[in-house]
Write a structure and sequence with these properties.
Length: 276
């Protein structure tokens, strides 16, 4: 996710992110993009990877106007830095993000622990949820065997093509999706990529509550786990979303797993439930 320093000084910013059609649904900026861009700016300013972060989605970003991201270091320690970012379009605040940044690996190392043995490949004809859980990750069919996500208003060149999302399983309170960032590169950064991919709690509302409903993002968190340090941002991620509905609002907890069943991050999101 490309953010550039407005004056060339990557330690101060402000940073600029170009809001193009590929980052939008219609003319609206996809919330996970704003979150990811803010984390990319913070990582440039601090020169440390993200450990955890929280975002408040204040207003919806709009297509065509650059997102300006100002960063501020609150405290810088030997092991971690706490900082915050404000993403605005003109005079409109789009998102506020606070984060802790430091080493992702154990004991100050960025190296992830050895991965567990991968689970046996699933039976392509099996029903999701019918078998035992293996090492925490849901046992589902491979991404290529799952149906693509359906969009209410698909638009060529938009976020509907930037992301490849497949529905792997649905129960009354849980949605499991495969997702990948189609054009991600190794330089994209795991935190930015996972912030983008984790933003599917609003979509899952219609799968667990009915197609006449959808969710509007209010806030989100992202907590990185050691395996994310070696994860490639272009790879498939399994999203396990568990919902708690509270009338007009819903909370979703998202576990993000790699193809080998290693947990990459934990995300949460609050959404406002609305009718189409």
């Amino acid at each position: 996710m490309m953010v550039v320093a407005a004056d060339g000084d990557t330690r101060r910013g402000p940073f600029v992110f170009s809001v193009e059609q590929r980052w939008c649904t219609g003319d609206r900026l996809f919330g996970g993009v704003a979150f990811g861009a803010a984390l990319a700016a913070l990582e440039l300013a601090v020169e440390r990877p993200t450990i955890s972060a929280a975002a408040q989605f204040v207003n919806t970003g709009r297509l065509g106007e650059p997102l300006t991201i100002a960063t501020e270091v609150l405290v810088a320690g030997t092991g971690a830095t706490q900082a915050r970012a404000s993403a605005v379009q003109g005079s409109v605040t789009v998102a506020l993000v606070s984060a802790t940044l430091g080493a992702l690996g154990p004991s100050g190392s960025v190296d992830p622990p050895d991965p567990p043995d991968p689970p046996d490949p699933p039976d392509p004809g099996a029903t999701w949820g019918a078998g035992e859980r293996s090492r925490g990750a849901p046992v589902v069919a491979n991404p290529e065997q799952c149906r693509p996500r359906e969009y209410q208003n698909p638009l060529a060149g938009s976020i509907t093509e930037t992301l490849d999302v497949r529905v792997a399983g649905v129960t009354p309170s849980t949605v499991v999706l495969w997702a990948r960032w189609v054009e991600a590169t190794a330089s994209s950064g795991p935190a930015s990529a996972l912030a983008l991919l984790s933003d599917h709690v609003p979509y899952g509302v219609r799968l667990v509550q009915g197609p006449e409903l959808y969710g509007v993002s209010l806030d989100a968190t992202l907590r990185m786990l050691p395996a994310a340090a070696a994860w490639e941002p272009s790879a498939w991620v399994l999203l396990e979303i568990t919902y708690d509905m509270l009338g007009a609002y819903g909370h979703g907890t998202v576990w993000l797993w790699d193809l080998d069943g290693r947990p990459l991050a934990i995300s949460t999101q609050t959404v406002r439930i609305r009718h189409w």
